[in-house]
Hints:
This protein is α/β, with parallel strands linked by helices. It contains 19 helices and 14 strands.
Amino acid sequence: xxxxxxxxxRRRALPLLLLFLAAPAFAAASxxxxxxxxxxxxxxxxxxxxVPYEIGTLYVPENRHRPGSRLIGVGxxxxxxxxxxxxxxxxxxxxxxxxxxxxxxxxxxxxxxxRLRSWLTYGAVGDxxxxxxxxxxxxxxxxxxxxxxxxxxxxxxxHAEAExxxxxxxxxxxxxxxxxxxxxxxGEFAADVDDLRKALGYDRISLFGGSFGSQWSLxxxxxxPEIVARxxxxxxxPLNEGYDMPSHVFxxxxxxxxxxxxxxxxxxxxPPGGLMEAVRALHRRFAGxxxxxxxxxxxxxxxxxxxxxxxxxxxxxSHTQEGEQWPAFILSLYHRHYDDWAREVIAGRQAGTTxxxxxxxxxxxxxxxxxxxxxxxxxxxxxxxxxNFEANIASAPDWPTRDMGDAVRLPVVSPIPVVFVHGDWDxxxxxxxxxxxxxxxxxxxxxxxxxxxxxxxxYQLRENPAAKAAVYAFLRTGKLENLPTEETLxxxxxxRPAFAPPAGRSEGG
Length: 509
């Protein structure tokens, strides 16, 4: 299948295009703020049509609040509509933070090819402009820092994670002399969008973003409302809700479990009470005492890791991106098949690399005091812990980005028309995010998609071509006609545990 998809796009390589693969932050000193450097290329669409595109670098101050700040490069690309539509261009904002997407024009992997195929459909709306994130762009710098290894001989700890993140913040500043890391807050991200708009000669724009891309879009709408005509947001992350409410995440798990309990292939593995009873039993088990698991790698070398209650909390949060796979993971642990999980934990505790723009942006945005109180006193903290927010809040004073303040964090009533698309199986940005934000957008429209996870707009609407067409029509005209309010995806085929069903059911706790 991959080779078929790749054949859909026959690229013509350009010598200049090769430059950006080596991250050409070339000669920023010779440019002024707002300058752009543009190169051109072509791709072929699925129909064989030759589609021209531009790929370039926008030069912006690293910190607009400091006179004389050095210039940095921010990558962007533009695919012009084949025929003028009169619609504002769509600015497509990637998620993450720390997702570089311009490789779609050069890389041959399936994700890049699929992304480019999607971008080429926006010609029905108008021009498409893709902008990468300052501090993580192929056309500028990719700011990273090493992360220390965690010990294997004791369970994970939220407190230890917070202390490690504080140390990493201090080390990151020391390891980047000459770079102003205070310039990587959400306000600067939003200003980059405005600067690119002006450099490309547009008066107003539409926004399209999911996950962090939706939060970035909301920042543009909050700080530069006059330039935004309309927006389509999915996997919505409001400015005050970068840290998810535990009970909202837990509610998404419950919705997944409801269908998993009715799957014939999982039924032989389920305890009395179903999948959520397995979660509660595992919570009791690991709260009682840690377990030691010894596994061997491909060479036969044995490694032992200690897994405890907070490891299980972290596992609940980190294994839910694909709802079809989460039940099998939980049931494997319930029946004491720990090896695969242990190997993942061992790999996760090794030294690695952190993309700095994530904690720089998150610590700057933070949450209001009222939101933090709700997070800490939420009833689902007992099962999920404080992994989602503890380290970020504790390390915020150690990161150099400014606090954006409650005036930016709290939503305000906005007349901008927005279509929100959100799945109720989304455990990364729960659907309650959209439900809480919708009243602030009197010209907004929500499409709630049952059984959709943390996916993009058009993937969530994959079962309804008419709904996808209506979203394109909204981006082109601003009209909310023919948009559904609710969609339901088919029941998935849940992954089975990688072992035979037990002969009989046991409490397992």
